[in-house]
Design brief:
The chain is mainly alpha-helical. It contains two helices and two strands; from the N terminus they run αββα.
């Protein structure tokens, strides 16, 4: 427990602190709830994007199998030029936002490649874009999870330490000041009795 003086000024100071803590606590709790909701929402979105990617890959494998062709896609046909990311804001926290993936223009010999290559390249680009989106969603979760830990620690600090400690200090000061007042009243009565006795004799 922090050091404190047993005075009326200290009592007022501690009451002001308690007001501040109790006013600030609901804001922290709201932020904590908002972060928890946002994290769950982003996790659901990441799961949906991952499922879409998995389904796309499965459909793509089935589609390629129909052609029975052993021709392989060359990595340079699906080369990333840039990953476009923006910035969002959740509960005052800046987070990365996935926008798109730019690919290098694909050039290949139409006579030497199977007919399905065009569609295959488009599908692979979709899979890569979904991969990048999942990566950014996971980054969002990481950023918000760090903030949630901080918000939770602050809520716990206020709820379990600061508010109870301040209430206890106010109680101790009030008891002390009450005892002092009672003691003064008793001393005043004793002094009055002595004065009355002295005046009578």
């Amino acid at each position: 427990m922090a050091k404190f003086k047993l005075t009326k000024n200290e009592q007022k100071k501690q009451k002001d602190r308690l007001k501040m803590f109790t006013r600030y606590l609901p804001t922290l709790q709201l932020k904590k709830q908002q972060l928890q909701t946002e994290i769950r929402s982003i996790e659901a979105r990441a799961t949906a994007v991952f499922e879409r990617k998995r389904q796309l890959e499965a459909d793509f494998r089935d589609w390629i199998a129909v052609f029975g062709d052993s021709f392989e896609l060359k990595p340079e046909w699906i080369e990333i030029r840039a990953i476009r990311r923006g910035e969002g804001n959740i509960a005052g926290i800046r987070i990365p936002v996935f926008e798109s993936v730019d690919f290098v223009e694909t050039r290949y010999d139409l006579y030497l490649t199977p007919l399905w290559i065009d569609k295959a390249i488009v599908k692979m680009k979709e899979v890569i874009a979904l991969d990048m989106e999942i990566k950014v969603l996971n980054e969002q979760i990481a950023v918000l999870s760090r903030e949630l830990r901080t918000a939770t620690q602050r809520v716990n600090l206020f709820e379990k330490v600061k508010i109870p400690e301040t209430r206890e200090i106010i109680k101790k000061i009030s008891i002390y000041l009450g005892d002092q007042q009672t003691s003064e009243v008793v001393r005043g009565k004793i002094a009055k009795k002595k004065l009355t006795r002295t005046a009578e004799s």
